Inverse folding.
């Protein structure tokens, strides 16, 4: 740009450089190329050159405004892997050139009780990557330093993106609720979330039962680490395991026979939701009281838990099963996910 000082024109570089991404202009629209000015880099932010970005079902929910909190134009994408190219002067523990991952959260207040106790994912004033801001379907993206987590060298950056949303979503409850290696656990839904949950729980040492509505996924679930596979529509099989499971992780976003799964819990067992089931979950109080059973839910995990998950993945060679598309084929990739044909996560790659 040009700056005029005392009649002398000085040519200066732009203080900010426009980002290029893919955006929807309203709910249900296809994505189109979109250029935007990100504004000044905040002191606590890193700017990441995006190498790849996973597609999550939450991106579809935001694009369609299913949750009523989308603003347009909207650049989706919150499973980013890339390299830090710029940093604010208050960034800690990171350096230019570090390869990092970013997930659903892009910032936390760092002063509330949840943040001060290490639960940044529960911050009521947290900044979310694609709520009111632009995400990772772009060439660059920004986030606060506390949510930019270094990628261990043993992990393949090409497939690591989905760990930062789908992966941590199913890993965090394992640590948060003290799931033990001796526990018998169930995973409802062997899809984008569930296929990672089965891998984690198997390597954690648990006896894993996979619940799926697709008979075709039975062999795949066993290869991923399930010791048993039960059809979600098989009432007789569900009846046989009544009272046997210590922990059941719900990764689906549709309703099933919740009474049958509560009945499958052992005394003290927990039915835990990470899938965004939009309908109310009807459960009778007496089905919980007699066996001191509980129902809970959780949003992703803290930065410290993300780092723990990445180390666990590196140690046990755990990775999402992915399909890849070029970033400029984003609409074809979204259609592939909507059709239910994705196996199991989709990752967009920048050229």
């Amino acid at each position: 740009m040009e700056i005029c000082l005392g009649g002398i024109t000085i040519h200066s570089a732009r203080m900010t450089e426009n980002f290029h991404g893919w955006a929807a202009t309203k709910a249900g629209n296809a994505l189109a190329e979109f250029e935007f000015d990100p504004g000044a880099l905040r002191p606590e932010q890193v700017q990441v050159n995006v190498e790849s970005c996973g597609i999550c079902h939450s991106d579809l929910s935001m694009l369609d405004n299913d949750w009523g909190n989308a603003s347009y134009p909207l650049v989706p994408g919150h499973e980013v892997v890339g390299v830090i190219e710029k940093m604010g002067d208050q960034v800690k523990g990171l350096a230019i050139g570090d390869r990092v991952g970013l997930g659903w959260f892009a910032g936390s207040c760092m002063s509330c009780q949840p943040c001060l106790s290490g639960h940044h994912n529960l911050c009521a004033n947290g900044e979310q990557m694609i709520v009111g801001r632009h995400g990772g379907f772009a060439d660059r993206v920004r986030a606060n330093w506390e949510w930019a987590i270094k990628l261990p060298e043993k992990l393949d950056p090409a497939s690591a993106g989905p760990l930062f949303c789908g992966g941590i979503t199913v890993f965090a409850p394992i640590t948060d609720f003290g799931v033990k290696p001796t526990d018998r656990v169930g995973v409802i839904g062997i899809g984008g979330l569930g296929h990672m949950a089965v891998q984690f729980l198997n390597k954690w040492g648990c006896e894993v039962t996979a619940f799926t509505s697709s008979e075709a996924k039975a062999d795949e679930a066993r290869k991923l680490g399930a010791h048993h596979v039960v059809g979600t529509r098989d009432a007789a099989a569900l009846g046989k395991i009544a009272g046997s499971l210590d922990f059941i992780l719900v990764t689906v976003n549709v309703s099933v026979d919740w009474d049958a799964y509560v009945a499958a819990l052992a005394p003290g067992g927990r039915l835990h939701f990470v899938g965004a089931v939009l309908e109310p979950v009807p459960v009778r109080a007496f089905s919980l009281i007699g066996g001191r059973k509980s129902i809970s839910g959780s949003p992703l995990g803290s930065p410290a838990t993300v780092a723990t998950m990445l180390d666990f993945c590196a140690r046990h060679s755990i990775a999402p099963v992915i399909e890849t598309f070029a970033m400029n084929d984003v609409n074809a990739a979204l259609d592939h996910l909507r059709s239910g044909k994705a196996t199991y996560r989709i990752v967009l790659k920048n050229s």
